[in-house]
């Protein structure tokens, strides 16, 4: 009996010591987190991280160590600085900008802002063609590759060889066979998640294209950075003078997803744009940046300035790169500046709309000031947490006077663009969410010209015709448990 009592006493001391050590560790983590987490971080994001760490100290702190840094490796940021200097010194097309009426007086400082943030100038003498049909955009890119004589640079967030994209890869192979230089970049994690990644790499090897995975997460090869810092850019540049960019990935329109319970299958609707003119050099400079980061090969300037365009037809355009390789959130600063500059209307299309506080204030302020503010989003979501985080903003937007259009299921409205008055449009890969603002490498193109605005207005009208308008009364009647889930998802969206 005495031995049992003594043993129990020893166990009690062990439990007491272990408990004390755990409490001290938790206290140390809490104090350390209070000092480290808020540094250079938005208050909502810092609070979300601190809440997670205080509720689950060890797990929360480990997740913060894994995902807490939004910065790419130092070498990558240094390479971006080198490219920026190169762009500033080798810019063509600035003399083609036509500041004829109606040149809005508020545009000049925004152009300068973009130049200071991303080094790219506003260049004139461009033409643009929009593609809203999934198959038609792949056909247009395939035709451009078929006509290439010197060079094809391809970069997409997601790439897959499938029935929809086979013709494009066949065109790449034919281009290599006739002596055209073909380079290909694809995001590592995003493309691995799509079935057929090994098939993609084998096909590119067989074609004879140079290809690399962007931001690879392969610790066994010494390749590591925060795994959710992704390269979300999408573009194709042909012979240095033709460039495609926009929202579409190089994969079949259903992303190889299974049918839903009701038998329907999600399909993506996109917006791609083909640019001809000096703006292609700016998009190619972004490709050169990403190629340099993955290969250490600094490409010589390969763009060819196209012939002059009729000033009455030419568009002014400016590439705005953004992402963790830059010090500031370039796309967020641009978007906010444009919304505050608007005098009449703001039309936004974003599949993932999870704005930070500054973006939310800009949009609701515009609506409360009497501007026509409309938001086009999907009725159905392909990413559960993001979709519900997005829904958490609807009430505030509706109360401010923003009109919300829900594109009917089973289509995912994946296009990413917005227009300011009848003056300026933004087209590119960037969503209006905190991931695109802070974690993803993105490309946006600011375009000025009446012709492209008219085309985008017509596209926006087709969205309305295939959508239903959400009302505040309808939204307030949604179940309480859905409201709670939306709000919880909104908190998780701040963890960055």
């Amino acid at each position: 009996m005495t031995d049992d009592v003594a043993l129990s006493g020893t166990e009690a001391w062990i439990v007491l010591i272990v408990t004390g050590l755990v409490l001290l560790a938790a206290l140390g983590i809490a104090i350390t987190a209070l000092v480290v987490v808020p540094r250079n971080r938005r208050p909502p994001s810092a609070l979300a991280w601190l809440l997670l760490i205080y509720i689950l100290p060890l797990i929360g702190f480990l997740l913060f160590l894994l995902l807490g840094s939004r910065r790419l490796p130092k070498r990558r940021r240094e390479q971006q600085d080198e490219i920026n200097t190169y762009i500033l010194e080798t810019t063509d097309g600035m003399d083609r900008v036509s500041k004829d009426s109606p040149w809005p007086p508020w545009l000049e400082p925004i152009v300068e802002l973009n130049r200071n943030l991303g080094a790219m100038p506003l260049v004139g003498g461009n033409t643009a063609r929009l593609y809203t049909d999934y198959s038609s955009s792949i056909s247009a890119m395939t035709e451009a590759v078929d006509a290439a004589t010197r060079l094809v640079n391809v970069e997409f967030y997601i790439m897959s060889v499938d029935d929809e994209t086979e013709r494009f890869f066949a065109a790449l192979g034919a281009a290599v066979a006739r002596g055209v230089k073909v380079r290909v970049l694809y995001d590592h994690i995003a493309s691995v998640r799509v079935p057929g990644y090994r098939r993609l790499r084998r096909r590119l090897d067989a074609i004879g294209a140079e290809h690399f995975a962007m931001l690879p997460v392969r610790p066994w090869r010494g390749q590591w950075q925060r795994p959710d810092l992704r390269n979300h850019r999408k573009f194709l540049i042909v012979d240095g003078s033709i460039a495609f960019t926009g929202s579409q990935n190089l994969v079949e329109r259903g992303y190889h997803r299974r049918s839903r319970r009701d038998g329907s299958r999600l399909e993506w609707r996109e917006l791609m744009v083909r640019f001809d003119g000096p703006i292609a050099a700016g998009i190619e400079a972004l490709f050169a940046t990403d190629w340099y980061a993955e290969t250490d090969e600094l490409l010589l300037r390969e763009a060819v300035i196209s012939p002059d365009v009729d000033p009455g037809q030419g568009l002014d355009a400016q590439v705005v790169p953004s992402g963790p390789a830059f010090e500031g959130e370039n796309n967020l600063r641009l978007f906010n500046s444009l919304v505050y500059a608007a005098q009449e209307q703001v039309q936004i299309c974003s599949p993932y709309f999870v704005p930070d506080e500054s973006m939310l204030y800009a949009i609701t302020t515009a609506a409360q000031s009497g501007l026509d503010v409309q938001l086009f989003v999907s009725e159905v979501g392909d990413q559960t947490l993001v979709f519900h985080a997005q829904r958490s903003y609807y009430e505030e937007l509706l109360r401010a006077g923003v009109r919300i259009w829900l594109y009917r299921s089973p289509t995912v409205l994946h296009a990413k663009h917005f227009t300011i008055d009848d003056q300026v449009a933004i087209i590119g890969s960037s969503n209006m969410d905190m991931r695109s603002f802070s974690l993803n490498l993105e490309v946006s193109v600011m375009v000025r010209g009446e012709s492209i605005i008219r085309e985008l207005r017509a596209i926006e009208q087709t969205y309305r015709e295939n959508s239903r308008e959400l009302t505040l009364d309808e939204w307030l009647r949604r179940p309480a448990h859905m409201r709670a889930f939306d709000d919880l998802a909104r908190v998780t969206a701040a963890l960055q």
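The chain has a mean pLDDT of 86. The radius of gyration is 25 Å.
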